[in-house]
C-alpha cells in the first residue's frame, strides 16, 4: 500500500457498505475514531498475484480501478475516469495526487470488505506476520512477575487465571515481525502504534459486549523489540464477562472457543489470524472459590489466616 501515516480505518457495516459503494467514491468520506464499539470484524484476503507473475507490483489505484470494474460491471466510468492511468487525478498538483493515492487505498480496502470473494479486490501482499500465544504468568498477583510466551496452535487449550485485581481472564500474547512500532509504550497517538481488533467467542457463553465472550475494537497495543528482530506484545487480558457469576467459572472447562485478531500496522495492509481453542477452568484455575487475593494461607494476602496473637481475655465472669 502507499505510504502515509494513519491509524486503523474504522469502516461501516458490510451490508450497508455494499449498497453505498456503487453510488459514492471514497474520497473524503472515511473518518477515523479512537474507538467504536459497533465496528465490524474485518476479514482480510491478501493477494500474491504480483509475485506469481513476476510483473511489477500494481499500484493501489490500479488495484482499486480493477476491483471497482469487477465489482460493478455496469458502472458509470467515474472511478476509472478519475483514478485510472489517464485519470483526472494525475493532472493535479503533487499534493492532489497524493490525496488520490490515499483515496485509492481507502477505496480498495472498502471494496475488499464488501466483496471479499473477488480476486480483483484482494489486498496487496505484505510481509507483516504475527503469531498468537498464551501468556504464562508465574504469579498473577505480582505485577512484575515473569511471563513466558507459549505459541498456540489450532486446538490448543488456554487456561483461565485469577488476576491480582480479582478478575478472571485469559492472557493472550502476540509476537510479530516486519512492521514498525511506537518507541514509547504509552504514546497511543503515534501513527506507528499497532492497533488490533479482537473477538473471542466461546460456545454457549457469548454473553459479553456485542454478542461475544470478549471483544476489543481499535485497541492500541505496544510491541517491544525482542531477539532476532521480532516484536512482542506481552499480553492482552481477555476478561471473563461480568455476566458470568464467579462461582460458575468452572462451567467454562472444556468449552470450545474461536479467537480472531486483526493487526493494523503503520503503512501496511491489515493482517488477520484466527485460531480454534479449548478452555481449561478448574476450580483451582478459577481461584479456588476466592473472589480475589492469593489462596495460600502463608502468603500474607487477603486470605491469610495468621492474624497475630489472640485478643486479650475480656471475660468478666466471676465463676470458677
Q: Largest sheet at a glance?
A: 6 strands, antiparallel
CATH class of the largest domain: Mainly Beta
First-to-last CA distance: 92 Å
Give the integer mean of the pLDDT values. Answer: 79
Shape: elongated
The number of E-state strands comes to: 11
Report helical residue fraction.
Answer: 10-25%
| Strand residues, percent | 15-25%
Q: Please state the second-level CATH architecture of the largest domain.
A: Sandwich
Compute the number of helices: 5
- CATH topology of the largest domain, by name, is Immunoglobulin-like
- Structural class by secondary-structure content: alpha+beta
Number of domains in the coordinates? Answer: 2
In words, what does this structure look like?
With 320 residues, the chain is of the alpha+beta class. The protein has 2 domains: 108 residues, no CATH class; 152 residues, Immunoglobulin-like (Sandwich), CATH 2.60.40. Helix content is 16%, strand content 23%. It is built from 5 helices and 11 strands; from the N terminus they run H-H-H-H-H-E-E-E-E-E-E-E-E-E-E-E. The strands form 2 sheets. Strands 1, 2, 4, 5, 8 and 9 form a 6-stranded antiparallel sheet that branches. A hairpin with a 5-residue loop joins strand 4 and strand 5. The radius of gyration is 26 Å and the shape is elongated. The termini are far apart.
Amino acid at each position: 500500500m502507499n505510504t502515509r501515516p494513519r491509524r486503523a480505518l474504522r469502516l461501516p457495516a458490510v451490508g450497508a457498505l455494499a449498497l453505498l459503494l456503487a453510488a459514492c467514491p471514497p474520497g473524503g468520506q472515511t473518518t477515523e475514531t479512537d474507538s467504536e464499539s459497533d465496528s465490524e470484524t474485518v476479514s482480510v484476503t491478501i493477494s500474491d498475484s504480483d509475485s506469481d507473475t513476476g510483473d511489477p507490483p500494481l499500484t493501489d489505484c490500479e488495484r482499486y480501478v480493477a476491483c471497482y470494474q469487477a465489482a460493478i460491471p455496469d458502472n458509470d466510468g467515474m472511478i476509472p475516469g478519475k483514478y485510472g492511468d489517464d485519470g483526472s487525478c494525475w493532472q493535479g498538483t503533487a499534493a492532489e495526487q497524493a490525496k488520490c493515492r490515499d483515496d485509492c487505498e481507502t477505496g480498495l480496502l472498502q471494496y475488499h470488505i464488501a466483496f471479499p470473494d473477488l480476486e480483483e479486490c484482494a489486498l496487496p501482499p505484505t510481509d507483516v506476520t504475527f503469531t498468537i500465544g498464551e501468556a504464562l504468568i508465574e504469579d498473577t498477583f505480582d505485577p512484575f512477575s515473569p511471563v513466558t510466551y507459549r505459541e498456540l496452535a489450532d486446538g490448543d487449550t488456554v487456561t483461565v487465571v485469577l488476576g491480582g485485581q480479582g478478575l478472571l481472564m485469559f492472557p493472550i500474547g502476540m509476537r510479530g515481525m516486519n512492521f514498525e512500532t511506537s518507541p514509547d509504550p504509552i504514546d497511543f497517538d503515534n501513527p506507528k502504534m499497532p492497533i488490533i481488533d479482537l473477538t473471542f467467542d466461546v460456545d454457549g457463553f457469548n454473553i459479553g459486549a456485542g454478542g461475544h465472550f470478549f471483544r476489543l475494537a481499535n485497541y492500541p497495543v505496544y510491541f517491544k523489540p525482542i531477539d532476532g528482530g521480532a516484536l512482542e506484545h506481552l499480553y492482552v487480558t481477555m476478561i471473563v464477562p461480568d455476566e458470568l457469576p464467579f462461582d460458575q467459572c468452572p462451567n467454562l472447562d472444556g468449552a470450545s472457543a474461536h479467537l480472531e485478531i486483526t493487526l493494523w500496522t503503520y503503512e501496511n495492509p491489515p493482517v488477520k489470524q484466527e485460531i480454534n481453542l479449548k478452555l481449561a477452568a478448574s476450580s483451582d484455575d478459577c481461584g479456588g472459590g476466592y473472589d480475589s487475593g492469593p489462596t495460600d494461607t502463608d502468603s500474607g494476602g487477603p486470605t491469610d489466616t495468621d492474624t497475630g496473637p489472640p485478643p486479650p481475655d475480656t471475660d468478666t465472669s466471676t465463676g470458677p
